[in-house]
């Protein structure tokens, strides 16, 4: 904005093909990341200029990052994406026939352009944007939901509810199923159990909406259950994910969901006669039988991980699910070295660390629009400090202070 005296350039990031895909090259128009000139020093200079009336100029233009190669043009089609003003949801209109549709026409999905090197602001050289695919990070933050409510006021339709398998559920179950099929029986699955984990104690709107969905799934819709679920939302959310894991990967096996928290879930509906739910200490078997499927939910200190691991037999798939404490380790992953992180989505400053078996680890920056950009991929589990430094640097170089997921006017998504 001129009042602040910033000189803002633009960085067009390339689109590349591959399984390590981000949500960026999806249904949205090609993204252009604003690059604040010169990093921290220039940001301070821009604020100084704005306060004292100077509107950029001088050496600012010379410091502005040059644009990278332009993204591929959209395909030649009569279909256009339009955003409904009442709800903000996109729908599609054919300018030749007048037809409208909630579903994205296949004609709009152009083949990805060949990889192009990114240039410009520091950190941009490592950026790579890939088209959606099997390794794509679930959509932030809609991916947590398995039901959607869409609105369109233009044609008289006020609301429709879409049932389905949420992106996060699908990605988790795909990763675990692929791991078991590959002979990996010792697994760790970690992601935020609610969309806005950092503010779970404050009753935010998106968490409240997710609470309603899991209450419906567990048959706890009555008013008498509302306050209990709200007070213990993380515990009930983890139970929801464990049930989804049992439904998607348990099959006809005997499934044991063992919780390490103290929240009573006895009134939640059962997901099947083959599924046992209780606390880890009450597990009915000293060791799971071959072919059984075990899920240990939210283990705490390392000793709790070790005690739970003793319950798994050599041929029984066993999953540690969503340890909030992470075994009290700083690095990525839990404390047991023989357990593989088959599905992992961890929030870091300005982005995420993501891995979906059998794909690579990915460093993702979260953009002000709520998309993700793959900055780097790793064959082996990276160090947390290295990923965090990369993501923070890229975010500041390309978005400055305009990439905060909480503050309105500064990229706030939540």
Could you characterize what this model shows?
The structure is a single chain. The protein is of the alpha/beta class and about 425 residues long. It has 8 helices and 18 strands. A 9-stranded mixed beta sheet has the order 12-11-13-14-10-15-16-17-18, with helices on both faces. The protein has a 3-stranded antiparallel beta sheet with strand order 4-5-6, with no helix packed on it. A two-stranded antiparallel sheet has the order 1-3.
Number of helices: 8
- Summed over residues and divided by their number, the pLDDT gives a mean of 77
Report the C-alpha radius of gyration, rounded. 23 Å
Question: Into which percent range does the helicity of residues fall?
Answer: 10-25%
Order of helices and strands: EEEHHEEEEEEHEHHHEEEHEEEEEH
Strand content: 15-25%
Assign the structural class, choosing from mainly alpha, mainly beta, alpha/beta, alpha+beta, or little secondary structure: alpha/beta
First-residue to last-residue Cα separation = 23 Å
Overall shape: globular
* Number of DSSP strand runs: 18
Largest sheet: 9 strands, mixed
Quaternary structure type: single chain
Sheet with most strands: strand arrangement: 12-11-13-14-10-15-16-17-18
Poorly predicted runs of 5 or more residues:
1-73, 111-133
């Amino acid at each position: 904005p001129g009042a602040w005296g910033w000189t803002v350039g633009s960085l067009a990031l390339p689109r590349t093909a591959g399984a390590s895909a981000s949500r960026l090259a999806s249904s949205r128009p090609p993204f252009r990341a604003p690059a604040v000139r010169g990093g921290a020093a220039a940001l301070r200079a821009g604020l100084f200029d704005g306060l004292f009336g100077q509107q950029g100029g001088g050496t600012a233009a010379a410091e502005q990052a040059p644009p990278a190669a332009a993204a591929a043009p959209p395909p030649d089609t009569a279909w256009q994406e339009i955003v409904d003003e009442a709800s903000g949801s996109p729908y599609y209109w054919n300018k030749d026939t007048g037809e409208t549709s909630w579903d994205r026409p296949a004609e709009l999905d152009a083949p990805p352009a060949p990889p192009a090197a990114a240039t410009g602001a520091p950190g941009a050289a490592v950026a790579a944007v890939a088209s959606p695919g099997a390794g794509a990070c679930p959509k932030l933050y809609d991916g947590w939901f398995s039901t959607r409510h869409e609105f369109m006021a233009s044609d008289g339709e006020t609301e429709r509810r879409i049932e389905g398998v949420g992106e996060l559920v699908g990605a988790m179950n795909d990763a675990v199923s692929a791991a078991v099929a590959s002979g990996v029986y010792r697994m760790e699955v970690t992601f935020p159990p609610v969309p806005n984990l950092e503010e779970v104690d404050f009753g935010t709107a998106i968490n409240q909406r997710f609470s309603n969905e899991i209450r419906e799934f567990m048959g706890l819709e009555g008013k008498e259950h509302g306050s209990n679920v709200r007070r213990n939302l993380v515990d009930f959310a983890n139970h929801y994910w464990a049930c989804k894991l049992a439904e998607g990967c348990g099959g006809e096996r005997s499934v044991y969901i063992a919780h390490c928290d103290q929240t009573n879930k006895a009134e939640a509906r059962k997901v099947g006669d083959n599924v046992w739910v209780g606390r880890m200490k009450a597990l009915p078997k000293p060791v799971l039988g071959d072919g059984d499927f075990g899920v240990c939910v939210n283990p705490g200190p390392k000793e709790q991980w070790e005690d739970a691991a003793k319950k798994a037999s050599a041929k029984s798939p066993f999953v540690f699910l969503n340890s909030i404490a992470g075994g009290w380790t700083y690095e990525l992953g839990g404390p047991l070295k023989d357990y593989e992180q088959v599905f992992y989505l961890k929030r870091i400053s300005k982005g995420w660390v993501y891995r979906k078996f059998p794909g690579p680890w990915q460093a993702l920056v979260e953009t002000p629009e709520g998309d993700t950009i793959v900055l780097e991929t790793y064959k082996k589990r990276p160090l947390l400090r290295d990923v965090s430094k990369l993501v923070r640097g890229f975010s500041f170089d390309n978005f400055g202070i305009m990439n905060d997921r909480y503050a309105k006017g500064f990229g706030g998504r939540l």
